[in-house]
Amino acid sequence: MKFYYVYILKCADDSLYVGITSDIERRVLEHNGGKYPEAYTHSRRPVELVFCQDFTDPNQAIEFEKKIKKWSRAKKQALIDEKYDELQSLAECRNATHYKYNLKNEEEKE
Prior knowledge:
Belongs to the UPF0213 family. Residues 2-78 form the GIY-YIG domain. It comes from Flavobacterium flavipallidum. This is GIY-YIG nuclease family protein. This protein is of the alpha+beta class. The protein has a single domain (4-109), classed as 3-Layer(aba) Sandwich (GIY-YIG endonuclease), CATH 3.40.1440. Helix content is 45%, strand content 19%. The protein has five helices and three strands. The chain has helices at residues 24-33, 58-69, 73-80, 87-91, 96-109, and strands at residues 4-10, 16-21, 48-55. It has a three-stranded antiparallel beta sheet, sandwiched between helices. The longest helix is centred in the last third of the chain and has 14 residues, at 96-109.
């Protein structure tokens, strides 16, 4: 059975990089070896693997990677730290305009 891995690397500059691969060991070695000079991680080496989730369905892996790439750093860090109970609260919009819009819509439904 083939596996696909969605992973998060912590870079030397403390930034986080999200990626997907079918061979996690090889891919981390490529990141640290600087195989692709144009890659985000090239100038931010060394990198450390801080999260990895395996999937058997490549489409699920791709969707998960796309999802977490959009997450805030705080939400990614909660995932890394296995603080799953914090993920929902970190997903809530903190934008006052967005909050007012959603509140207005909820009031109109009543």
